[in-house]
Specification:
The structure is a single chain. With 357 residues, the protein is α/β, with parallel strands linked by helices. The protein contains 17 helices and five strands. The protein has a five-stranded parallel beta sheet with strand order 2-3-4-1-5, sandwiched between helices. The longest helix has 22 residues. The two termini are 41 Å apart.
């Protein structure tokens, strides 16, 4: 059965978002987040919590979940054992999604920009006293979705923070966030957790699945929540089809124009995110890092990719990152032309390998 790429990527995004949000109350940090959680707890106890935090790292590792757990802890009136108590009035309001002192700043639609009007409305809220008499918390997700005007509007709140206010910025690509924004946040870089730790968490959740946990985690490039989301629907098969298409292009069995036509019905942002992760995985594999995904490729493809020029491969990664930044800024390019350009450039990259032989 042929897949519908747009629907697959859209549904996958919804499943990943659900995994980030649908948890028992109070939210508890994942096993791989314990060190960061202890750091936040110590800052709270010592009253040294900064006015702005940036949680940065790959998508699918639970940054939003960690931000929400911290927000619950900060707003709780009677925290117990280092987490929100789950029983006070503030926790009841958080559970019901009606707490007046927490604000989420997000794009109106996934993949779109956060606009200046939304930031202006937020700034008005920050100027008011907390209705529950404690902290006001703002969670920006993702921070790179703010366009230049929105970022500049938020800058004043970061430079002159209101009392008892905590801004938590979530970023999958911190380099795409304005340097002036980054410099005013306490940065927490959240790396991919170790494979062994993730497999201990993931394996019991895969009861009845025909997919090996190691293979699923490899397809998710080490991101635990992404791996779990891949279990449902056709998302895993969709990713495999994208990879097959790229391998066929690399072996001259399909043209860049034809492949772009196949891909254009998908969510371009989701396809670009997959391509970015796949090429990054390839670059790491080229310098000796283990990769289940690359090791499963046909031997002819492996031989071809082993001879790629690393400097050229890194330049291609930079182009993908630039394209992603443009999409996040709110640009609305012609999908067919954008994909054609990226795939034609991939073909040029391979030709440079051939000329160097």
């Amino acid at each position: 059965m042929a897949l519908i790429p747009g629907r697959v990527s859209e549904d996958f995004g919804k499943r990943l978002a659900t995994l980030e949000n649908m948890r028992d109350f109070p939210a508890l940090p994942y096993p791989w987040q314990q060190n960061d959680w202890q750091s936040f707890s110590a800052q709270l106890e010592q009253r040294h919590l900064p006015h702005a935090l940036m949680l940065a790292g790959p998508q699918g590792i639970g940054k939003r979940h960690l931000a929400e757990a911290l927000a619950q802890r900060v707003l709780c009136l009677s925290p117990a054992s280092g987490t929100a108590c789950g029983k006070c009035r503030a926790c009841d309001l958080m559970k019901a999604g009606t707490h007046p002192d927490i604000t989420w700043l997000e794009p109106e639609e996934p993949g779109k920009a956060i606009k200046i009007d939304s930031v202006r409305a937020l700034i008005q809220t920050l100027g008011q006293t907390a209705q529950q008499g404690g902290y006001k918390v703002v969670i920006v997700d993702p921070a790179e979705a703010m366009n230049a005007n929105a970022s500049n509007a938020l800058l004043k709140s970061l430079e002159e923070p209101a009392e008892n206010t905590l801004l938590i910025l979530i970023s999958h690509t911190p380099s795409a966030v304005m340097p002036t924004i980054r410099s005013r946040c306490q940065m927490h870089l959240l790396a991919l957790p170790g494979e062994e730790q993730v497999l201990r968490w993931l394996t019991p959740l895969m009861t009845g699945s025909q997919v090996a946990p190691e293979r699923l985690l490899a397809a998710a490039r080490g991101a635990p929540l992404t791996a779990l989301a891949l279990l449902e629907g056709d998302a895993l098969e969709w990713r495999e089809q994208l990879q097959d298409g790229l391998v066929q292009l690399s072996e001259d069995r399909v043209s860049a124009i034809a492949l772009a036509a196949q891909w254009q019905n998908a969510d371009v942002a989701a396809t670009l995110e997959w391509l970015l992760g796949w090429v990054h995985d390839l670059a790491r594999w080229r310098v000796g890092a283990p990769s289940v995904v690359m090791d499963e490729l046909p031997e002819a493809a492996q031989q071809r990719f082993r001879q790629l020029s690393l400097p050229v491969l890194h330049r291609y990664l930079e182009k993908l990152l630039t394209t992603k930044k443009q999409l996040l800024s709110g640009a609305n390019p012609n999908k067919q032309l954008l994909l054609e350009e990226l795939l034609l450039d991939w073909g040029v990259l391979l030709k440079q390998r051939e000329r160097s032989q």
